[in-house]
Amino acid sequence: MELKKLAISEKKRQALVTMGIDSVEALLTHYPFRYEVVEETPLSSWEKDGKVTLEGVIVNRARVVRYAPKRSVTRFQIVCQNKLFEVSLFNRPWISAFQTGKTITLMGKYEGGNRITAASYNFQPLHEQEGIKPVYALKEGITQNDLARYVKKAFQVLPHQENRIPDELIAHYRLISRDQALHEVHAPTSSAMLKQAFRHLKYEEFFLFQLVMQGLRKNDHAHGDKPRKQFEQDEVWELTRTLPFALTKDQKTCIQDILDDLQSSASMYRMVQGDVGSGKTMVAAFAMYACVLAHKQAAFMAPTEILAKQHAENLKRLFQDYEVEVEVLYSALKGKEKQRILERLVHHEIDIIVGTHALFQEDVYFYDLGLVIADEQHRFGVEQRKKLLQKGDKVDFLLMSATPIPRTLAMSLFGDMDVSTIEVLPQGRKAIITKVVKENSMRSILEEVLAHLDQGDQCYIVCPAIEKNEDYAMRNASDLYEALKESIGRVYQIGLLHGKMSSAQKDEVMQAFQRGDYQILVSTTVIEVGVDVKNANLMVIYDANRFGLSQIHQLRGRVGRGDRQGYCWLLSDSKDVDAQARLQILEETCNGFEIARRDLALRGPGDILGTRQSGVPGFILGDIIADSNILEVARKDAGIVLKQMETGAYPALKRYLDTHLREAQCFD
Ligand code: ADP
Ligand code: MG
After folding, report:
1. What CA–CA distance (Å, rounded) separates 583 from 436?
2. CATH number of 433-589
3. What are the domain boundaries of the chain?
């Protein structure tokens, strides 16, 4: 139902829309992000320095003491539960409000010795305020009161909310109804009922998500059989001979999983997850080679141009003695050069095309696309899947991710996606020595870094910002680059790399660094994923507290790729104890799974999985770690319900599902 029905002013309505609230239903599912419990603290449970909420009567005239400009303390006495207390209230110097004889409600801290420091006060009777109060997330232009009022109105125009979960399941798990749950969430009657409300809504959230994900998967399968890819597995394994190393056990297992998928009549939908440096690219290469042997084309999608080019070069080298044509395509490529590639692609003169998301633009046509691999991106959501479907009907799909999440969780999250995991790193890989430096400066480590440079190592210096104007508090790459040139530029060659440079410039700098022309590369996170420079064994990260742990782990995965010991220094002058504690984790372990697990526990999934731009759903209520048991149950239930729908059961739910599947698959 349209928001217009609620008679909200145009300005406020616009503000709501920017918050993602564009309908009455959306208003009802804009859940409070926390609750405040207002209740009288019985005198018997008052503790020194504890929080108290109380009602009392003012018994003397208030006095104000001003102890600094704009700083004051107002003092008066109250009687509360037959006892006398001295109240202090900071920076509210309006004496006349606190008249003797008035009943006042106070919230604050008990200081002991009958003294109270009040944080807030009002003159409403306490019993009228008691209860659990919702607190909503806000944006500019909308207040708590606004939201509370709109939600009330919403319930007036939509007085009854139908269940979305099948009734059998509601009965089975003894859930309250959706209607009750929504009312409770916005206006809790008790903490026990609020808990019940969350049980319903979390389960519903997971269940519906699973239904759509599994429905999508089923549709992929339902569109007729995928032609099995025809190749000899032995011939694929022959590729091993050209490698300068032996594949790890896990790499072999992953490749075997994939070869079996390619030869099956069901579309592959698989994720290979493995820590940075675990050798995922090689797994991708084997998969693409199998596809090429089956006379089909493979597309390898990388998140950045630098990475796409690097992949293309490596693949060209790998396949130099084979009849496998590798090309690279990216947005900056224009005119004749691009035209030429597109033509060769559609005429099957290219077997493997590597590229950025440019691979999925409208003007790109394949002769016969058989396999798509997306590297280093969990940003492969419904949108991208839609584009992918446009390129070929029964395409096998492989996702490579270095953001390790527990296997069962990955399966739950991505519906029925299959998961292969590379856990062991190639032999001889040394753990990167990581040190947290408690200032945002290289002062204390500069000597050590320069000594390494003198031995032939190269160093990345990573800053969170490109230029000064973004955020004054952050180090920016441009200024740091200038400063370093000024101080050590006569002795050391220094390069600068950031996302605002043209791709030709970036390329030039990166190649120069790879050649060893620069000892130091000052950069933003554009180097984040996958870039491979063998001599780069050092990394310094400024404002490390501003990055996610997994992101830093990925970043430092750029160093120590050769035989020499890698080092990483994390600079941070954050006074936040938690931020420092988080960085310590990186000192302690180089295991990406462990880091992801601890980061998840500390920050919740939204940040780590990059929910905002990703295909990973942003659950509003459900916490994929804390509520993983609900997620798992919902996954199984959704599978069963989906099956039953085929025989006509749950028509309303079927309509819901169809709408969402259409959204995910329409070719508009
Ligand atoms: P990631 O999993 O982070 O994408 P890469 O595929 O970039 O890792 O591999 C990192 C490095 O390890 C590359 O230089 C690659 O050639 C090398 N490598 C891959 N597999 C093996 C192996 N089995 N033994 C030794 N080195 C390997
Ligand atoms: Mg990689």
Report:
1. 7
2. 3.40.50.300
3. 3-155, 233-422, 433-589
Q: What's the 425 CA to ligand 1 centre distance in angstroms?
A: 8
| Amino acid at position 207, single letter | F
**Rounded distance from Cα 606 to ligand 2 centre (Å):** 23
Pairing state of beta strands 458-462 and 326-329?
A: unpaired
- 38 touches 129 (CB < 8 A): yes
For the chain, which ranges sit under pLDDT 70? 220-224, 377-386, 388-390, 392-393, 403-416, 469-472, 528-531, 600-626, 663-668
Phi-psi region of 187 (alpha: psi -120 to 50; beta: other; left: phi over 0): beta
How far are the Cα atoms of 10, 64, 147, 179 from residue 24, in angstroms, in the given order?
15, 48, 12, 14
- Range 233-422: architecture per CATH: 3-Layer(aba) Sandwich (3.40)
Nearest to 440 by CA among 470, 468, 463, 469: 463
Determine contact, residues 494/518, Cβ cutoff 8 Å: yes
Distance 486 CA to ligand 2 centre (A): 35
Residues, the chain: 668
Is the CATH number of domain 3-155 2.40.50.140?
yes
Q: What is the pLDDT of residue 213?
A: 77
CA dist 73 → 56, 65, 265, 393 (Å): 19, 5, 77, 73
| Token pair in block for residue 619 | 């659950």
Q: Judge whether 3-155 and 433-589 match in fold.
A: no
Three-state secondary-structure class, residue 373: strand
CA dist 317 and 387 (Å) reads 30
Burial 162-200 (b: 16+ CB within 10 A, else e): ebbbbeebbeeeebbbbbbbbbbbbbbeeeebbebbbbb
What Cα–Cα distance (Å) separates residue 35 from each residue in 20, 38, 55, 175, 619? Answer: 21, 10, 21, 21, 18
Q: Please say whether the beta carbons of 618 and 209 come within 8 A.
A: no
Provide the b/e sequence for 383-418 (b: ≥16 CB within 10 Å): ebbbebbebbebbbbbbbbbbbbbeebbbbbbbbbb
Residue 617: per-residue pLDDT: 43
Q: Which of 243, 251, 278 to mutate to test the pocket of ligand 1 (most atoms within 8 A of CB)?
A: 278
Q: 353 has which bridge partners?
A: 299, 327
The DSSP annotation for 475-499 comes to -BHHHHHHHHHHHHTTTS-EEEE-T
Among protein residues, the one whose CA lies closest to atom 5 of ligand 1? 279
| pLDDT reported for residue 66 | 92
| Nearest residue by C-alpha to atom 25 in ligand 1 | 426
CA of 571 to the centre of ligand 2 (A): 26
pLDDT value at residue 668 = 28
The answer to whether residues 459 and 520 touch, using CB atoms and an 8 Å cutoff, is yes
- What CA–CA distance (Å, rounded) separates 183 from 87? 38
Residues having CB closer than 6 A to ligand 1 are 245, 247-248, 251, 274, 276-282, 402, 426, 530, 532, 561
